[in-house]
Write a structure and sequence with these properties.
With about 120 residues, the protein is α+β, with helices and mostly antiparallel strands. The chain contains 3 helices and 5 strands.
Length: about 120
């Protein structure tokens, strides 16, 4: 099967804005783990490292990966029937250790709107 052919039941994966380049800047081990979680999402599953992203409603998930005491995140949505969109990928650098930065939260919100627009344009919905 070529790189662009999809397996039966596999939804296409789309990258919003800089999300792919941001993910490619992560350590290789983190890239592979996040890639595996995204692949599972393409087939309708949910990886154990994926948890609901608060504030965006259902269908938006955060993949959480720790590597060498650093925290990496990738946010994706399965809200659309025929596609998975990766909204954001970032290294969490929160001074409080718990809260995600306002900038990252706002980026996810903006990019979810972009994904909605792109999906509607692609599928005419």
């Amino acid at each position: 099967m070529s790189r662009h052919e999809r397996a039966r039941g596999e939804k296409p994966l789309f990258w919003v804005a800089s999300s792919l380049n941001d993910l490619l800047a992560f350590p290789e081990k983190v890239q592979k783990k996040i890639g595996a979680a995204l692949s599972l999402a393409q087939f309708g599953g949910k990886h154990p490292s994926a948890k609901p992203w608060k504030g965006a409603g259902s269908g938006v998930f955060e993949i959480v990966e720790e590597y060498r005491s650093d925290a990496y995140r990738a946010i994706y949505t399965v809200k659309f029937a025929d596609a998975v969109y990766v909204l954001h990928a970032f290294q969490k650098k929160s001074p409080s250790g718990i809260r995600t930065s306002r900038r990252d939260v706002e980026l996810v919100t903006q990019r979810l709107k972009l994904a909605q627009q792109e999906y509607e344009a692609r599928h005419g919905q």
